[in-house]
Amino acid sequence: MWGGRFAEGPAAVMREINASIPFDKRLWRQDIAGSKAHVAMLGVQGIVGHADSVTIAQGLDRVAAEYEANGVTDDLTLEDIHMATESRLAELIGPAAGRLHTARSRNDQVATDFRLWVRDSIDAVDVGLRALQQALVARAAEHAESVMPGFTHLQAAQPVTLGHHLMAYYEMVRRDRSRFADARARMNECPLGAAALAGTGFPIDRQATAKALGFDRPTANSLDSVSDRDFALDYLMSAAQASLHLSRLAEEIVLWASQPFGFVSLPDQWSTGSSIMPQKRNPDAAELVRGHSGRIVGCLTSLMITMKGLPLAYSKDMQDDKPPVFEAHDLLALSIAAMSGMIETLTFRTDRMRAAAEAGFSTATDLADRLVRVAGVPFREAHHITGAVVKLAEVKGCALSDLSLAELQAIDPRIDEGVQAALSVDASVAARASEGGTAPERVRQTIARAKENLGS
Ligand code: ARG
């Protein structure tokens, strides 16, 4: 009894630890595409007879149609998507199926499939990020002149325009898209033909398979081809960086939706209630976007640590490359979509933003700047005078613009009568018209440029 169990138990666990089909079945489209490119090349090169190569290609189409209709079943005895597909092919077309794996190994096969999958994912993410940029630009255009407090240290610093604030995220997403594009360009080399690790003795045509699969060229070194997962790491690094940006924006939505801020309100579609507190309207989606970024960074860490210290060439550890990439992709795609939805539908409470900008002496720098510009006071001295003005307003419990000219001139006679107008939040933002600044005219310029770049 015991012996029988010993013999069977470990074998079952071995099967379980070895199998990747439960997750790598997600590569089935890429696996079929890779096999079709491979067998077409084998046929052209005369490595496999023409008739067999056609039979195999048609058989692969039938397997693909079955997968499309019924999904891929998790048969652990077939280990992975590569074996599952080949086994089904053999059932459908008979012994000719056995010729498909000529001049190929699962090592170059999986490297090729996974690159194709990551490439498709990058393209999908780019579409999502572009839509998010469009949402940001559209809302920024509505609010090129809406004034809000700009923060440093989360303390009201200087007034800015809401459009400017939103366009800051547009810039982050622009860099994210360019990072993904770099990753895509770098990864677009085809490992197929590296075989197990050393290349093959068959007269294959790697240029042909690379071209058929949309790669720029074949990879240069067979050992590197089967052991490299930089493309997956590049993807994860880009995903992690993008998710950090989404998380920061999400955090601002959470903060701004809270009652003390009250800068935004989320529509019903993007809010959740509380099962105990009927007054609650919670920004769960934003919180989850913030939370998901932690998991995405975890996926990056996971694959980095898997790859660290692996000798050349393929090791089975590398089978663990797929779950973190799939997970990160799903989380990122969902986060981008949720963020676009929230940005499109948020209500910005511009009255509350303006009131907050007007509180907190946020135009103090404008007073100092004016003393420099109009009275020729050195900036350091102007800063000191302004400090005294702020102190007075604080003591009196009023805004800077509420102080009378007499009160101001008692602090320093060089303060002129134009100062009160200069201390309004609108004058303050309008004055910041330097390149990249928050002035509405500048913001409108950057929005116009962004629209041009987005082709909208
Ligand atoms: N399922 C494997 C993976 O994803 C395919 C490659 C297997 N190669 C091997 N030498 N056992 O890594």
From TrEMBL:
<feature type="domain" description="Argininosuccinate lyase C-terminal">
    <location>
        <begin position="361"/>
        <end position="430"/>
    </location>
</feature>
<protein>
    <recommendedName>
        <fullName>Argininosuccinate lyase</fullName>
        <ecNumber>4.3.2.1</ecNumber>
    </recommendedName>
</protein>
<dbReference type="InterPro" id="IPR020557">
    <property type="entry name" value="Fumarate_lyase_CS"/>
</dbReference>
<keyword id="KW-0028">Amino-acid biosynthesis</keyword>
<keyword id="KW-0963">Cytoplasm</keyword>
<dbReference type="GO" id="GO:0042450">
    <property type="term" value="P:L-arginine biosynthetic process via ornithine"/>
</dbReference>
<dbReference type="InterPro" id="IPR008948">
    <property type="entry name" value="L-Aspartase-like"/>
</dbReference>
<comment type="similarity">
    <text>Belongs to the lyase 1 family. Argininosuccinate lyase subfamily.</text>
</comment>
<keyword id="KW-0456">Lyase</keyword>
<dbReference type="InterPro" id="IPR022761">
    <property type="entry name" value="Fumarate_lyase_N"/>
</dbReference>
<dbReference type="InterPro" id="IPR009049">
    <property type="entry name" value="Argininosuccinate_lyase"/>
</dbReference>
<dbReference type="InterPro" id="IPR029419">
    <property type="entry name" value="Arg_succ_lyase_C"/>
</dbReference>
<dbReference type="GO" id="GO:0005829">
    <property type="term" value="C:cytosol"/>
</dbReference>
<comment type="pathway">
    <text>Amino-acid biosynthesis; L-arginine biosynthesis; L-arginine from L-ornithine and carbamoyl phosphate: step 3/3.</text>
</comment>
<feature type="domain" description="Fumarate lyase N-terminal">
    <location>
        <begin position="6"/>
        <end position="298"/>
    </location>
</feature>
<dbReference type="InterPro" id="IPR024083">
    <property type="entry name" value="Fumarase/histidase_N"/>
</dbReference>
<keyword id="KW-0055">Arginine biosynthesis</keyword>
<dbReference type="Pfam" id="PF14698">
    <property type="entry name" value="ASL_C2"/>
</dbReference>
<dbReference type="Pfam" id="PF00206">
    <property type="entry name" value="Lyase_1"/>
</dbReference>
<dbReference type="GO" id="GO:0004056">
    <property type="term" value="F:argininosuccinate lyase activity"/>
</dbReference>
<dbReference type="InterPro" id="IPR000362">
    <property type="entry name" value="Fumarate_lyase_fam"/>
</dbReference>
